[in-house]
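Working notes for the structural subgroup meeting. M.R. asked for a predicted model of this chain before we commit to crystallization trials. I am recording the input and output together here so anyone reviewing the notebook later can reproduce the run.

Input as submitted:
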Amino acid sequence: MMNGQMTSALNVHVAGKCSKGTSWLWIGLSAVIWGGSTGSANAEQSPPPNPIVIERQGAFEAGGRTIGGNGQSLSCDHGYVEYQIPENARDTALFMWHSSSAAVWQNSWDGGEGYQSIFLRQGYPVYLWDGPRVGRGNWGCEGYEYTPQTANNEQSFVSWRFGPQFGEFFDGVQFPIHDQEAWNQAVRARYAEFDTIPNAKIEAKAAVAALDRIGPSVLVTNSAGGFRALLSALESENVKAIVAYENPGFILPEGTEQRGGPGRFPPVYVSEEEFRKLTRLPIQMVFGDFVNESAGWSKVRGHAEQFVELVNERGGQAELLDLPEAGLKGNTHMPFADLNNADVAKLLSEFIERHGLSAGAVRIEAPE
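Returned structure, recorded in token form:
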């Protein structure tokens, strides 16, 4: 998700999707524009009409190891699971794996319902995961330093594809561009990330321990959470499906050259036998809008396309879903938090149902 601190005097304009250098509407980010009624405030004042009935909720730690000696020890490198189980729950859980903060699953950008509430309404047990060293699982077995990066806000604006450059929104982007508090919440709702392959393997191992306790689950992931989920799927038969929103890292069979060259996450190579484990479960790679406006994300999408081809050549059930091709326009790097997240959620529901993973409670429709 997002990082950093807010700029006090920022002029923002909306850029056309195909002519990103041309601004046609200027919006001053000032109290005049951002004050008054905002989407966040309206969402908080207009709760959904139907209550969500929770049968059980709680939290637990999973995985990790113990270090020390001579009568002194430390339990560390475990993950943290927050869960809610609705009344008359379905058989398969949704395990939501972020790459920023658990908050991305809890609300849309404007303060409306997030995936957690949307799918609890549909009867799915929902588990929010903070991997080892991240967020509420931050008791690591190794020391680390946090160094503030003062350009993170600006970098996030672009990498999340709100616009081609900081302060310039894409035309039709599914973010409340007039709502200052939405931006403020977005840039604050994140943890320090450890985007390295060794850390991904630590997180994947702890997630396997969590899934041992939870049981059959669909892993719903954001960004690098998808890469970590693929690693977990190699080790756990409780992974019944993966739906990965804009995953930048992939597993490849040994001897395969990654199309277009490696990206931020170089591929993890495994044996042919290991790679074939990914053919036993349905996998959906999802991408939002404006991908062609970003060289980095265009490259990642190419990696996803290659991964899908490799899995399916071996008899798997992988697919690539471009939201604009499904009729959903303006989605960012985090479609599940966008203003049209209810429509994005419908596509996830359809995927789960299509693969026979929705058995259990009678569906309770989310409010319109």
